[in-house]
Design a protein that fits this description.
The complex is a heterodimer. By secondary structure, chain A is mainly beta. In chain A, 0% of the residues lie in helices and 51% in strands. In chain B, strands 2, 4, 5, 9, 10 and 11 form a 6-stranded mixed β-sheet that branches. A 5-stranded antiparallel β-sheet of chain B has the order 1-3-8-7-6, with no helix packed on it. The chains are: A mainly beta, B mainly beta.
Chain lengths: 111, 109
């Protein structure tokens, strides 16, 4: 099993650009999560999903969108990127909300 | 009040020391509790789950006090390799996982 994979690993965006962060898991987990981690800070929940077709907002959803059309994929969309979205983005998955497995992260810089 | 609060540290301890981290959570309906470890510039990884009766895994002991909404992690005989940030994680009744800001530990020779 590859576990949780994220692409890209690094990205630099200009203000106002859009992009999609990809997240895929091959463990057949029904729960998936997106977090952001600012330098020296903890993880903040952006969005989560308890199954295909179901998504819910977390603590900091503004400026982001998600979709969950399959069990495996949970892409995060940034529209109109802003410098405040410079962060490391982690995707995670779990089975029924139990222990979470994390991807390696995407480091995003918005200039 | 933050949903999950931790002492940010940093904790600087010598090898062989015993160190304890504390965490409090605000949602009394929280279901599950975990300690994660995060190395610099890496993703968090599960260290251990925390059970109501308390549990131990080698040098690590986790305890939960539901009445006080308090979780602890004790590390005995600290090793250099224990240096990391320790994250307290709480899963609430909405099934999302909330993280504390983390406690940074540095173990020195």
């Amino acid at each position: 099993n590859a576990g949780v994979t994220q692409t890209p690993k690094f990205r630099i965006l200009k203000i106002g650009q859009s992009m999609t962060l990809q997240c895929t898991q091959d463990m057949n987990h029904n729960y998936m999560y997106w977090y952001r981690q600012d330098p020296g800070m903890g993880l903040k929940l952006i969005y989560y999903s308890v199954g295909a077709g179901i998504t819910d907002k977390g603590e900091v959803p503004n400026g982001y969108n998600v979709s969950r059309s399959t069990t495996e994929d949970f892409p995060l969309r940034l529209e109109l990127a802003a410098p405040s979205q410079t962060s490391v983005y982690f995707c995670a998955s779990s089975y029924r909300g139990d222990r979470g497995f994390f991807g390696p992260g995407t480091r995003l810089t918005v200039l | 009040r933050k949903e999950v609060e931790q002492d940010p540290g940093p904790f600087n301890v010598p090898e062989g020391a015993t160190v304890a981290f504390n965490c409090t959570y605000s949602n009394s309906a929280s279901q599950s509790f975990f300690w994660y470890r995060q190395d610099c510039r890496k993703e968090p990884k599960l260290l251990m789950s925390v059970y109501s009766s308390g549990n131990e895994d080698g040098r690590f002991t986790a305890q939960l006090n539901r009445a006080s909404q308090y979780i602890s992690l004790l590390i005995r005989d600290s090793k250099l390799s224990d240096s990391a940030t320790y994250l307290c994680v709480v899963r609430d009744n909405n099934n999302d996982m909330r993280f504390g800001a983390g406690t940074r530990l540095t173990v020195k020779p």
